[in-house]
Amino acid sequence: MYKKYTLDNGLRVVTEHIPFVKSISIGVWIETGSKQETINNNGISHFIEHMLFKGTTSKSAKEIAELIDGIGGQINAFTSKECTCYYTKVLDSHYELAIDLLADMLFNSKFDKEDIQKEKSVIYEEISMYEDSPEDLAHDLLYQSIFKNSSLGFPILGTNKSLESIERDEILNYMQKYYVPNNAVISIAGNFDEGNLLKVIEDKFGKWEKTENLVIKEETLDYNFTHYSKSKDIEQVHLCLGFKGIPLGENKLYPLLVVNNILGGSMSSRLFQNIREDRGLAYSIYSYPSTYKGGGLLSIYAGMNPNLLDEVSALIYSELENLSRNGLTALELNKSKEQLKGNYILGLESTSSRMTSIGKSELLLHKIYSPKEIIQKIDDVGMSEVGDIIKEIIDLNHIASTTVGKIERNLIFNKAN
């Protein structure tokens, strides 16, 4: 059972009490990510995420680590295109300490100039690591290509050039703009005393000052369906394909999830069975949908020997053409729905996943669907909805592609490859 509270400063608090567990997961969510950035400060959201672990006015970075390790807990953070989350998972007897630590990091981080320079070096290495991971690079390049006219295409890590110019004053100004309670959510799942929990949150976050000038950038995404390749001296070629997807919060996501499961979302999917299992042409091949405010993507990835690129891409095209022409069978529809429900329910076994689910949903949608409502949305998907979503999404005349590997030409994606 979810509960929602709103503090006087606009901070939303969403909770799910799970009395039969001994853990508690706590997340502080901020609605800012690379989508809110500019070409000049690209990467600042992710950089701030790193800096909040570098020490506060009362604790060094080492002391933060020792404090959470000393209670057998976990603390971490992540930055995405649309949000940043700082989270902990601890035994239920330690949640006051965890909340105090998150508040201290959020409000009292030092942003020492020497630490800023050190952390830039760390992130330069992180960027290099992504460059050395061709699968990640292929996905990043797909976003940069298909959303080249939108900040959604910016890399979350930023670039060496954009990070170089980010200094302390710009960090503080950015936080003053976006790190405000009316742009944040605290989500909590696990075992806790409700009255005391809210008292602790009010004590630690109640004086957080809101802004009256909050502006979250919203835009209808402009898709750029081009083919792009990056030559890299590696053993495989990594291929990513992108179709226009479904925006966050739309019910059409559920038929798309059903279709994706059958196309490439599981080991029994058409792409995996045909290209990997039956023909042995690729070790890894899969598809997945991504949803954002204003738009989304359906992506397909495959990694293969350079000599097999044309054959694999032609087989993918044939599977897409078959899906577009013939749709799913009734058996596939029912199987996919059961798989989705099973995966969803199994995901609810963890307090971390529940905290993430309710936090992100409240932050970006301002509402939370119960498990019963989610299951109903999956059950409601029928052949008509599946046919409509295939017609809308699987548009073989509008496909973006990126390839990374020993290839000197852009992919021409069609059946005749």
From TrEMBL:
This protein's name? Predicted Zn-dependent peptidase
Q: In this protein, which residues make up the domain named Peptidase M16 C-terminal?
A: 165-340
List, in alphabetical order, the GO biological process terms annotated in this UniProt record: proteolysis
Taking the record's annotation, the residue ranges forming a coiled coil are none
Can you tell which superkingdom this protein's organism belongs to? Bacteria
Task: Give the originating organism.
Answer: Anaerovirgula multivorans
Peptidase M16 N-terminal domain sequence ranges: 12-159
Please give one Gene Ontology molecular function term for this protein. metal ion binding
For this chain, the family text in UniProt reads: Belongs to the peptidase M16 family.
